[in-house]
Amino acid sequence: MADGGGAEGRRVCGMPEKAQLHVAMLALQFGYAGFHVVSRLALNMGISKLVFPVYRNIIALCLLVPFAYFLEKKDRPQLTLSFVVQFFLLALCGITANQGFYLLGLDNTSPTFASAIQNSVPAITFAMAAALRIEKVRLDRRDGVAKVVGTLACVAGASVITLYKGPTIFGPSGGKAVAAGEVVVAGGEMKNWTLGCLYLIGHCLSWSGWLVLQAPVLKKYPARLSVTSYTCFFGVIQFLIIAAFMERDADAWRFHSGSELFTILYAGFIASGVAFAVQIWCIDRGGPVFVAVYQPVQTLVVAIMASLTLGEKFYLGGVIGAVLIIAGLYLVLWGKSEERARLVRDAAMASGERDAAGAAGGIARSAKASSVTQPLLLPSSTTDNV
Q: Whose CA is closest to 204, among 308, 99, 299?
């Protein structure tokens, strides 16, 4: 998290930075929660699942390009064919598959459970990184055990949501259910709860894969906004190619009401534009773990919003699965936090040992120069262990 002294020093309207971070993260969760509900409303209004992400990413691209161009002039390496291929693959994983699976899953389930399953992304990312040997798994330490157990809890939670729907434990009062409430019923026409959950798991796998693949790209191309802009550009191209074959109805590309226009503008400006900028600032000031800790708040806000606006019903299997996923999330985050703290301590100890070794070497050289009769000091062996 942000340094306490620095947080007190940087104030906006008399508010210390630490308080700014918490307010920004709460606002971010409300913004993303609204996106889940708005996306569900867009699907209910009949907006194409291919047209929606095309317009969303075009808006996001228009917002990102100016900032990427002017802010990263000095950091942006020359664009090569290798980078173009990598950006294309990042878009395929992080934009096309990610957003496509999300909309397919949301169409068959509900905003709350889509948000709940997203809590498993840190655990899936850890599992992928461990499988690719990017991250080491140490079962002889508490942090390693916590990350493994948390990952297993997330997998168990996602499995429960997918395979066991269970009875309704909460729903809109009265016998008249709104149309949106009927849309998400597994037994409804053309809707399949289990298939929807599988789509959402595919969404999380794509998201995690994008995070893992993005890390080595950013090492070679250290311009995050530019990488995101290129990824977004290729995502638009890929969706347009798919739409050319699967969405040939020209009427699907037109806005038929102000509500349809609002949902797309919200997805583009708020979810992909403003929220992205706020998240980057929060990660920079508070760290990735601080940002991830707030993720379950989004699920709670989505549940309240969806219940009030969509008449969403909550099922026992979904609640049990969400609890397991959130518990797994916090275990993984705790393990990462412990690991980071241990690395900081080890680095501090190593630095202290190097300083001590350097001082000892200086004393030895001084002693040798001042008196040939005095025994030479033995060189410190601690540096061999650093």
A: 99
